[in-house]
Amino acid sequence: NNNKITIAIDGYSSTGKSTVAKQLAKHLGYIYVDSGAMYRAVTYYAMIHGFIDEHQFNKEALISNLQSIEISFKFNSDLGFAEVYLNGENVEKQIRTLEVSGFVSKVATLPEVRSQLVKQQQKMGKDKGVVMDGRDIGTVVFPDAELKLFMSASAETRAKRRYKELIDRGDDVRYEDVLRNVEERDYMDTNRAESPLLKAPDAINFDNSNMTRDKQFEAILKLVDKVIDK
Ligand code: CDP
Ligand code: CDP
Fold first, then answer.
1. How many domains does the chain have?
2. What is the pLDDT of residue 2?
């Protein structure tokens, strides 16, 4: 199929963006890029270098070290998607902790961080045939994407989903802390000055509060087929 398109999926935290993006990429033979993983990897870098913790955020130090941060993706055929690497090290597991989630929205406010990552994201999607999920994909990274989705679900639904995911992987977290993190990131991501989370005018609203993963995939695939068949 030479009618490859770009699919931009934005929305609030834990709405199922990456779940459906992976399903779509597999089904269509497209590449999947988890842009949030890139912000998480930069945050993880800042944490292990002591640039951010619960008491301080040394933005200048992080900014002056941005050139030393190399993020890449490598497809893992067992998992069926690409894992994220920071300076050659697989950090897929390390970047998903609640601790990283607690700092990432602060790091994501920095214009210097955003412009570096956006440039890389645009390069990865230059030949189309890409599904990318994040917060600013339909508005900033690929404003010309042929299909844009804006995902939402109630905060409690999202926190429950994320809590289950963290417990299942063995993390010792409390539901209240996960819910608080989801709500704080919603707030910070929506209210920051640089590329805030915003529905692009031509994005389709998609609320999956009461949808299973399979139902959600089915419904979104219909939207994709409509665009591809045009
Ligand atoms: O998967 P989850 O919804 O928890 O978040 P994520 O997609 O991994 O993104 C983590 C954080 O990175 C978000 O809360 C945003 O602060 C930031 N982010 C962003 O600013 N722009 C993007 N395109 C993707 C993520
Ligand atoms: O990428 P994003 O943060 O938007 O969400 P995700 O990582 O795809 O989904 C968060 C959690 O919700 C995962 O554990 C999914 O399996 C689950 N989920 C669900 O239970 N029902 C859905 N309709 C979508 C996602």
1. 1
2. 65
Is pTM beyond 0.80? Reply is yes
Establish if 1 belongs to a structural domain.
no
Q: What is the CATH number of the domain that holds 154?
A: 3.40.50.300
Whether 185 maps to a domain, the answer reads: yes
Nearest ligand, measured from the Cα of 151: 2
ipTM, two decimals, is: 0.98
**Ligand 1, CB cutoff 6 Å, lining residues:** 13-14, 18, 35-36, 39-40, 104-105, 108, 134-137, 185, 189
Structural domain boundaries, residue 39: 6-225
CA distance 37 to 228: 28
What is the tens place of the pLDDT at every residue in 13-61?
999 999 999 999 999 999 999 999 999 999 999 999 999 999 999 999 9
Mutation pick for ligand 2 pocket among 14, 149, 215, 216 (CB with most ligand atoms within 8 Å):
14
Q: At a CB cut-off of 8 Å and minimum separation 6, what does 137 contact? A: 8, 9, 10, 35, 121, 145, 148
Structure tokens at 60: 């200048």
Q: Any idea which residue has 């089904």 for tokens? A: 27
Residue 178 has pLDDT above 80, yes or no: yes
CA distance 107 to 3: 36
For ligand 2, whether the C-beta of 17 sits within 6 Å is yes
11 is in an annotated binding site: yes
The per-residue pLDDT for range 192-225, each reduced to its tens digit, is 999 999 999 999 999 999 999 999 999 999 999 9
In-domain check, residue 230: no
Q: Is residue 194 part of a domain?
A: yes
CB of 224 closer than 8 Å to CB of 7: yes
